Structure formats: structure tokens, C-alpha cells
Amino acid sequence: MTVVHYINQFFAGMGGEEKADTPPFRLDGATGPGRGLGLEVATTIGCGDDYFAEHEDEALSALLAWLEEARPSVLVCGPAFGSGRYGYACGVVAREAAHRGIPAVTAMHQDNPGVLAADGAPYVIPTGTSVTSMRETLPKMAELAGKLSRAEAVGGPDEEGYLPRHVRRNTIRDEPGASRAIDLLLRKLAGDVRTEAKPPGDFVAPPPPIADPAAATIALVTEAGCVPQGNPDHLPSRRSFTWLRYSLDGVTSLSADRYETVHGGFDTAAANQDPNRLVPLDAARELERDGRIGRLHDFFYTTSGVNTPVAVAAKMGQEIAEELVSSGVQAVILTGT
Amino acid sequence: MGDAASSVERRDRRPASGEGELIVDRTLSVASYRVRDLVAGDATRWEDGALHVDLAGVERAADELPGLRSMTAAIVQPGESTRIASVLDVVEPTVKPANPRTTFSGHLGTLGVAGVGVSNRLDGMAVVSTIGPAEQLDRVEGLIDMGGPGAPLSYWSRTCNLVLSFDADPAATLAEVDRSIRIATLTVARDLAATTVDHAPDESESLELGPADGGDLPSLCVVMQVASEGPGVDTLIYGAPVIGIMPVVMDAREILDGAIVSGAYDHASVRNPTYFYQRSRLLRELIAGHGSRWWLKGVVVTLGYLNGGFEKQRAAVLAAKLAAQLGAQGAVLTTFSSGNSHTDTMLTCRACEELGVRTAVLIVESNGGLTDFVPEADCIVSVGNEDELIEGWHPDRTVGGRDPRVAPADDDAPVPLRDYLGANCQLGDMPIGVEES
């Protein structure tokens, strides 16, 4: 068993805020909380919280190079409790290690931004917000780290005490789906409601309506696979992992000889006769001309919404949204298929 | 897979008034002939559990059919190191001995009401249609692995399979090719089963659905979603595509007896090959418990994959209305394919619950979890995560249409579960589920 432990400058005893700009460091053996894990920690790696936040790429490349060198059987990060910057670094380092095939476990408060940064790749054990929960957290981390290190089967989140990662793995059950459905239906009719699947719970609350459309900048976004004729940037018809942006400068309508759809999920014949039905530029320009909307954003955004994993689609949506917000767009007309 | 639904003897409970039953006092008798061996031979015949098949004779079934250049037949056995690729459909051989032309009613000559009378079936055997690269079809992913890590995910890794590989004429239309392949496949399936006529079956069962009333038993129905979007993405009932239908009530035994035939070849793990309608575990189990554990009030067949919000809402409301009209207190909702159709399922769930019909929903997940959701869907059976990767495998041989657009360049490349035919069957025939980690 080779254990590597990630901590920040504070838990390495280098200092507090005044040392938060410490670049990545590497120490032999266990340091700070690593001594309380009860595991034989071969190497401790770490980074100042500010340095990591401000130089993520540089910090990661140094830390990951050390990890590749040590090739541990498990990486332990934190615990970070309620500390947002430390938690973020723990989440990112653990995530990147897990993506490289190194099992990883970290611990922090469930509202720590590091949980989102971890993105379901490592295991995250929930803690309190302050260091007072150190004593109860370390044994939980050590137990899970031990299992991961020995490549033992890890149970579900309730059983093992980690936060649900929303990783949905297939398993062969004793009964086929039909028998389970009849059983669950009879139970439900008797008042015992059970389910095998719940929504992930990341519902986005709609923002309030824009106060004055006539003063707003509106953008057109679509998953309808609308691209310039010939698909010059090779947008995939299915399983798209990318989105594209095309200029609308001087364009008043999407004509059939200049635009088309490459979407692989519907009969595109009618849409190709009038691409404005994919991206309603003709109608939007009319609203703009009549002063009913302030102005149309200079680009439209497009992808093909077929067979793309939901997590990838969510990430693409966040990327597009960030760009729109930074461009001063207040509202979006999102056309789907 | 051989746990046949047992018959329920209810001859002593005749309807008092004769009211209310859609189909009264009919019986489907199913004679099962267990196929212990499938062997190539000079003549096609049944002999003590061994089916001898004249492969050249089988291949002639496609001779006169338009749109096909050729059809070849091959035998694939359980336990072989074989991958069957680009599968279009899987059919269990069956015949109506009283009038073989009514087998798969509407496809092979004569129309008759399915689900009554006698049917002979070859138990443990399947006819598998496949296609090579064809201009007319988008990539056809359907895989059946007889060994390796994909075998437990392949329902037909346990059956003796007669694999028909079709070569389409590039000049023919998809509709033509599709129809000819279906007729050839169903004809072969029927004619193989016809060898059992006048032989004694291994087992006979009588599927009865007497009047469904009385006692404290819960009343159940199935709302079965199918899809019909044209050749290649179709479902046929009594020989015709169901595109545009209003939800319709069918007897579970009609469906088990060949009234529904698949014409859908995309999205391999979540479509329903014909075999799953013929052997539906859900329908057989509900028939078996009818009168002792519940009343089976009927099967509402409805469309998913509908084009717009209005169409989806309308089908959901009308399917729910039929479930309520049948007097069902609870309904098992099944789903066809993934993505778009999951909205149809969820709207149907909501419409049923609003009319007081409680629901259990069979549906597949992706890496992102559920595609759509309504709060009323509080009782879901997950039939697996279609995105999970299955490790690569080197079979000794590949049978069927090895489409270079599908076949991984390297056999070590993992294959997503969604490419395995029927693996995430949303009629509930597979034992796959999901666990959170």
C-alpha cells in the first residue's frame, strides 16, 4: 500500500493566510493530519490555497507529476472542512488523480465548492464546517482509503458514509425488471412507495423575468445542430461533446443555401428548407427592428443534442452561459428539437 | 429464462352477468418444444428435441423477395466464442397449426385474431436477422455476444440461434428492403416451428384470463409504449405500422402470440425486438397471477417518440383514460427507446396518477441519470445505465453484418452497453439494474 496525502500550507505547518501563496511542495512521510490517519503515508504533497486558486494549471502539473512518480495505491486529500479554497484544491487534485486511475478520497463539508469540483470522480466524505470534526473524520477517510488501496469492493454511499457521487453502475439483480415493477406497484398500492431511481436534484430555478425586453440583449442558442452549409467545423450529428459559435453580424435571416442542420435525431428535411425554424433569426430580427427587444447578441450558439451524456451537456450549457453573461446578454431564446 | 407463466385455472368463475369484459373466456394454448440441439442437415425436421435445418433451403425463403440480393443462414450455439453483429430483429419460432398463414397475423398471408387457439413454439431458440452495410440504414449497432463479458448482457447468448444475414440491393428503397427482410425472417421462424406439428410437446400451458372482478385483489394493467416513425424505426400491429394510432387496448395473449412485430433497428439496447413481445416476462407474470394475486385488466398500447408537446400530452391523457376505463388501480408503464420517448413516459405517468391510476415505471438511465422526470414518478424500476462501457472482447468469429461504421477498429475498445441488443429492455425482461456509488 502506497499512500500519498495532499494538504495545504496551513496543515503543513508553514503558516496561515500570509503563506497562502506557497507554491507546490513535497515532503517525505506524514505531516499534520496525515499522522492521524493511521496509514503509512509515503509522501505528503501540498500547495498554498491562494497559489492553487491563482495558478491552477501550474500547481496541478507539478502535483500530478509527483503523483505519477509515486504512483500511489490511493490518494488522500484534506480534510478541508468548510474552507472553500482548500476544499476546491482537494476536489480538483482528487478528481484529476481519479481520472488518471489513482483511487482518491477527500473530505469536506457538503456545501464546500470542492464537492462540485470533485465532479463525482473521487469519494468525498462529509465533515462539519470546522476543524473540530477532525477526530471523527480521519478514521472514516482511513477506512475508505484502505479499501480503495486494497482494491476491495466499496459499497454504496449510505453504507460507506461518502456523499452520493451520482455514479450509476450496472448490476445484475436477482429478478428481471418486470418482476421488480410488479412488486413495487403492489407495494405502492399498499401504501409503501419505493423507487430505484430519483432525479439528480440539480434543478435550476428559473430567474425572474427580464424587467424590460426593449432594453435587453437577447441571444439565440440551439441544440438543433444548425451550422453553415457544409458543416465547416465538423459538428457531430450525434454524441457531440462540443458547441460552436457563429457570427450573426449583418445576417438577417438563415437562408437554406447558407445554413443547414446536421442533427442526427430527427427528420431534417423540413428544417433544411428553412433554417430559421432551427434558430429563429428572421423573427428575432423583426422584434429587434420593431424595438420590442433591445438588441440581438452578435453570435448564435449551436450543438447537436442527441446521445450526448447529460453531464457533458450540462458542462456545455455552463460554458455557453458564462460566455453570454460576460457578453452582457440578459435573456436567451433556446430552441430544441 | 425458461420460467414459463403457469396457467391459472379459473373455470369455476364464470361472469355472473357477462358485463364489462373486453375479451371473455378465450384461451391460448401454448405447446412448447424444447430445442436441445440445432444442427445443419439435409432436410428441415424435428426429431426428439433436435431441430435439423437445411440451411440452403432456409436461404431460398428470400429468393423471390424484392430489394434483397441474398440471404445466408448460419447456426450459432450458446457458449461459442461468437459475436452476432448488426442485428435487426430476433424472433422466436412459432406456428399456428390450425392455419399457419395466420402466424404473425397480417404478415404472412391471412389475418386472424392472435391470442386464441393453439400455438407451437420452439423453446430456447431464436431466429436472428442481421444486415451488412446498407445504404438504406444508418448504423445498426445491435450486438449479441455468445461469450465474453457481453454474454450476461445478451439475452440470446443462452438460445440456439439461426442467424440470417441479409444483403440489400442498393437500388431498393428502405421500405422495400425492410418489408422483405421481415417477411423472410418471420417465414423462416414460422416454418421451423411447423416441423413440430404432429409431435408431442415437452410442455403445454393454457393462458387464461377469466373475468377480472371480485374479491380484494388489486386491479392492474400495463401501459405499453411503442414507437412508429416509418421504415427502420417502426412497430407493427397485425401487419401494419401503428403510426398515428390512438392508444388501444389489447389482450396480453395477443401480444404474446405474435400480434406485435418490431420494425425498429436503431438504439439497440432500448428497443424491443419481436422476441420480447412474444416472451414478455411482464405479460406472462401478470397472466400467471391473474385471479390469485391480482386482476389483469388489459394492456393499453400507446405511442412514444411523438413529435410535439401537444401530441405527447394527447397520447398520455388518452392512454391514462383507457387505463382508468379498464378499472385499473395500478399500471406498469413500459418505455420504448431513450431520450425523446422518456418525456412521453413521464407525461403518461402524470396523466395516470391524476386519474387515480397508480404507476410503476420501467425506464433506462444514462450516465446523467434520468432523461426526464415528473414528481409523480415516485416508483421507478431502473433497467440499467445504457452509457456504461463494457470491456472489449476478441471473439473467434463474427456472424451477421459486420458494419465497418460500427465495428471498433480494435476489438480491445470497450463497447457501450447501448450497443447490446435488448440489454436495457424497458419491458422488463432483463435482470439489469443500477446501483449508486
Short structural summary:
The complex is a heterodimer of chains A (337) and B (437). Chain A has 337 residues and is an alpha/beta fold.
Question: How is this structure best described in words?
Answer:
Chain A is globular, with a radius of gyration of 25 Å. The model of chain A has no long low-confidence stretch (mean pLDDT 93). Chain A has ten helices and 13 strands. Chain A has two domains: 3-160, Rossmann fold, CATH 3.40.50; 213-335, no CATH class. In chain A, the strands form three sheets. Chain A has a six-stranded mixed β-sheet with strand order 2-3-1-4-5-6, sandwiched between helices. Chain A is of the alpha/beta class. Chain B folds into two domains: 23-207, no CATH class; 209-393 and 414-437, no CATH class. Chain B is 17% helix and 30% strand. Chain B contains seven helices and 26 strands. Chain B has helices at 55-59, 174-193, 252-256, 274-278, 281-288, 309-325, 340-354; strands at residues 27-34, 37-40, 45-47, 50-53, 68-76, 82-85, 87-91, 94-95, 117-123, 125-131, 144-145, 160-168, 203-208, 219-226, 233-237, 240-241, 248-250, 260-264, 295-303, 330-333, 358-365, 380-385, 389-390, 397-400, 415-416, 432-436. In chain B, the strands form seven sheets. Chain B has a six-stranded mixed β-sheet, with helices on both faces. A four-stranded mixed β-sheet of chain B has the order 8-9-1-13. In chain B, strand 20 (330-333), helix 7 and strand 21 form a beta-alpha-beta unit. In chain B, helix 6 (309-325) crosses helix 7 (340-354). The two termini of chain B are 29 Å apart. The relative contact order of chain B is 0.17. At the A-B interface, strand 7, helix 7 and helix 10 of A face helix 5, strand 20, strand 21, strand 22 and strand 26 of B.
